Amino acid sequence: MMDPDMGKALEYPLSLGGAMAGMGVIARMLFNKLIEAKDATINTLTDRIAHLEATNSTMLADIARLRLQNHELRNTLQRYQRKEDHPC
Questions:
Q1: How far apart are the C-alpha atoms of 42 and 70, rounded to whole Å?
Q2: Which of 13, 6, 1 lies closest to 28 in space, CA to CA?
Q3: pTM above 0.70?
Q4: Total domain count for the chain?
């Protein structure tokens, strides 16, 4: 489907009105491309944020697991140190 303004631009290629109509069509096409690019960028950033949130959750779970292991190892070390201090 042809834009009505494009028809004007083609009909009067040498007139000021035709040139202005042609510029309007080009401006509208560029604006639409800009909107498409903005939407694609937003979608990409949204996907990246979701990936980073998932990675962050995994890392937080790993940190919690490592803290628990550290606590258990510290308790085990303290038990062995007490046994060395009091062998009975």
A1: 41
A2: 6
A3: no
A4: 1
10-residue stretch averages of pLDDT, the chain, 88 residues long: 54 63 84 94 95 95 97 94 76
Interacting residues of 17 by C-beta distance below 8 A, sequence separation 6+: 8
Torsion of CA 52, 57, 58, 62, to 10 degrees: 130
Distance CA 14, CA 1 (A): 23
* Amino acid making up residue 42: I
Which residue bears the tokens 């028809």?
7
Where in the sequence is the domain holding 52, given as residue range(s)? 4-85
Neighbouring C-beta atoms of residue 8, cutoff 10 Å: 19
